[in-house]
């Protein structure tokens, strides 16, 4: 819903860029309020409320307005709902989205109206120490803003009943629209389906990137993946892409393990059937694996992954843990056996390069995104997505707008 309201007589709207937007050029003195539906988080363990939120009438010079077509429902959203992570309220959750640009600010150069885009929750400033080193996921600006659920200027954009509303990780994809900095809207080819493309915004990039970028796995090396959800099966895909000799998938669900096999796992371990460590060591002739990836975010499974890592190998922590969580690891083993523990955030990606590349790989049938989408819902049914998550069913539920 778009509302036109009279502004101060004789005032200048300052919205020249909107002549290319879906709202068209504004007459002098007019303002515009965009109202749309969104799933709003109001507090831990409370159901998300479908509300009508509003967007301020003007885009900043470097902002773009995206009409969301699809959003994946990720376990990170569930961390907030459960209270595992402290988060401000009210807030529109969601961070895994794709859609079409419908409006651009006056200084936008990297994306245009009608472009199909995937949203990134780590927009980079391009000039801080980490961006200069080619590690934009660690950008100083993103650390100060997106990770605090704010826009790039440290402020919110949405409102509910006149009060500020945060957007999860600066994007808030559980809504029909999202306003982001142009660096957070990554253009992709127009023939890619939105539901599958949305998952590149988190799960796909996080999993495949952890193997290819963070670990830099080589052909013939061995991998262990603990947890075969949305990120885990993409870790499997990443290991297959680089030519891993052995890909051991671990989960408690036989359904997810079978899917992991279809994505490229060579060996399956049901964690309920006995000691994961003993089983993995037996599968590897007592050696352990070159890279052990943990994709759940639990201390016990991170410790298991480390125990399964061979001398000189690396444990890659991909799963997100609850606040104030610690693990117990023998530091002598780390130094004596030269075992590394590596953190991987967003697959150590460069979104402007990796997002289009992953979409191309999907369209070329080298990466499977179709089987990741195991349930499609409308926004009003978002509660069912978290019910499935609690039951451990499916890989990804996608909201289609």
Task: Give the percentage of residues in beta strands.
Answer: 25-35%
- The second-level CATH architecture of the largest domain is Alpha-Beta Complex
**CATH superfamily descriptor of the largest domain:** Medium-chain alcohol dehydrogenases, catalytic domain
Shape: globular
Mean pLDDT: 92
> What count of helical segments does DSSP give?
12
List the uncertain runs.
Answer: 2-19
The CATH top-level class label of the largest domain: Alpha Beta
CATH topology of the largest domain: Quinone Oxidoreductase, Chain A, domain 1
CA distance, first residue to last residue: 14 Å
Strand element count: 19
Structural class: alpha/beta
Number of domains: 2
Written account of the structure:
The chain is α/β, with parallel strands linked by helices and 401 residues long. It has two domains: 2-201 and 368-400, Alpha-Beta Complex (Quinone Oxidoreductase, Chain A, domain 1), CATH 3.90.180; 204-345, 3-Layer(aba) Sandwich (Rossmann fold), CATH 3.40.50.720. It contains twelve helices and 19 strands. The strands form three sheets. Strands 4, 6, 7, 10, 11, 18 and 19 form a seven-stranded mixed sheet that branches. Strands 1, 2, 3, 5, 8 and 9 form a six-stranded mixed sheet that branches. A six-stranded parallel sheet has the order 14-13-12-15-16-17, sandwiched between helices. Strand 18 (373-377), helix 12 and strand 19 (396-400) form a beta-alpha-beta unit. Helix 5 runs parallel beside helix 6 (230-241). The two termini are 14 Å apart.
């Amino acid at each position: 819903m778009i509302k036109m309201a009279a502004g101060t007589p004789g005032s200048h709207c300052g919205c020249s860029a909107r002549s290319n937007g879906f709202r068209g050029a504004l007459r002098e003195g007019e303002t515009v309020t965009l109202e749309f539906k969104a799933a709003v988080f109001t507090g831990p363990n409370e159901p998300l409320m479908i509300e009508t939120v509003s967007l301020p009438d003007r885009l900043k010079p470097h902002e773009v307005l995206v009409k969301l077509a699809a959003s994946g429902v990720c376990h990170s959203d569930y961390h907030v709902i459960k209270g595992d992570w402290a988060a401000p309220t009210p807030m529109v959750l969601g961070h895994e989205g794709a859609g079409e640009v419908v409006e651009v600010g006056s200084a936008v150069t990297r994306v245009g109206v009608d472009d199909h885009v995937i949203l990134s929750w780590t927009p980079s400033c391009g000039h801080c120490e980490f961006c200069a080193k080619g590690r934009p996921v660690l950008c100083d600006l993103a650390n100060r803003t997106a990770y605090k659920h704010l826009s790039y200027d440290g402020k919110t954009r949405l409102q509910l009943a006149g009060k500020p509303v945060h957007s999860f990780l600066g994007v808030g994809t559980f809504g029909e629209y999202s306003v982001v900095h142009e660096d957070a809207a990554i253009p992709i080819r127009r023939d890619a389906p939105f539901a599958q493309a949305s998952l590149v915004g988190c799960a796909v990039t996080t999993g495949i990137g952890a193997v290819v970028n963070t670990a830099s796995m080589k052909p013939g090396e061995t991998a262990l993946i603990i947890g075969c959800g949305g990120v885990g099966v993409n870790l499997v895909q990443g290991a297959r892409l680089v030519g891993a000799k052995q890909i051991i998938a671990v989960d408690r669900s036989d359904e997810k393990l079978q899917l992991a096999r279809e994505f490229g796992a060579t060996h399956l371990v049901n964690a309920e059937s006995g000691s994961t460590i003993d089983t993995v060591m037996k599968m590897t002739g007592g050696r352990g694996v070159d890279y052990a990836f943990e994709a759940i975010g639990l201390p016990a499974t991170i410790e298991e992954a480390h125990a399964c890592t061979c001398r000189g190998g690396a444990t890659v922590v991909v799963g997100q843990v609850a606040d104030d969580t610690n693990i117990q690891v023998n530091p002598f083993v780390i130094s004596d056996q030269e075992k590394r523990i590596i953190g991987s955030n967003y697959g150590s990606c460069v979104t402007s390069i990796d997002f289009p590349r992953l979409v191309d790989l999907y369209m070329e049938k080298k990466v499977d995104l179709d089987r990741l989408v195991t349930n499609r819902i409308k926004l009003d049914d978002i509660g069912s997505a978290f019910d499935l998550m609690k039951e451990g069913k499916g890989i990804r539920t996608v909201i289609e707008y």
